[in-house]
Request: fold
Amino acid sequence: MTTRLQELDEIEASVWSELERCVATRPRSEAGEDAHEPPHEWRVAVLATVDDGQADARSLVLREVDAAERRLIFYTDARSPKVRQIEQSPQGTLIFYSRELGWQLRMQVRLNVETTGLAVSSRWARLQTSAGARDYLSVAAPGRPLDAPLSELGVRGHFAMIEAMAEKVDWLELHPQGHRRAVLGGHGSHWVQP
Ligand SMILES: Cc1cc2nc3c(=O)[nH]c(=O)nc-3n(C[C@H](O)[C@H](O)[C@H](O)COP(=O)(O)O)c2cc1C
Reply:
């Protein structure tokens, strides 16, 4: 059995290095037959948002991590309902769980959507020649009923990036010798009862 980390700053550093490690592996949906090793279990996160006072949540592939800035990046279709929700209410929660690590992260984040500008165009330039580009090129917006008439023609990509700035991380470790939980914040961390 591996040694358990004891210090909160070591745990926080390890959380961010696992997040960085996970974006280096390809998600199963993209690796397909080429998948030689299982993707990191944190590669697909659940993002919860607020929709007019009602909770909403969905799975998203984590694309980029900047540990120093405590920033995570996801890609999406600019027309998807989550984009409107984030514009109206930028608070969100990200959930990551890894059975291998025994770690759950509940990360309170401040969300921002970028649909134009260099950060978006440079990523779209990289993506548009890949198979993943079709996710952002459909004529119909995500969630649109399939029997509704089409009024517009999709002539350009609807690629957008969601930026999530971590404000607080609730870390839970499930362990046979006793579960542990800590709140890891940019302004100090503390242990809490699991
Ligand atoms: C494994 C998995 C990965 C997904 N990755 C993404 C993603 O990276 N970006 C995205 O917009 N939707 C992704 N989706 C689809 C979303 O979960 C969701 O169905 C879609 O974005 C519409 O969400 P919304 O109606 O809340 O906007 C993924 C779904 C699954 C099951």
Q: What stands out?
A: Strands lie at 44-51, 54-66, 71-77, 91-98, 103-114, 159-173, 180-185, 188-192. The chain has four helices and eight strands.
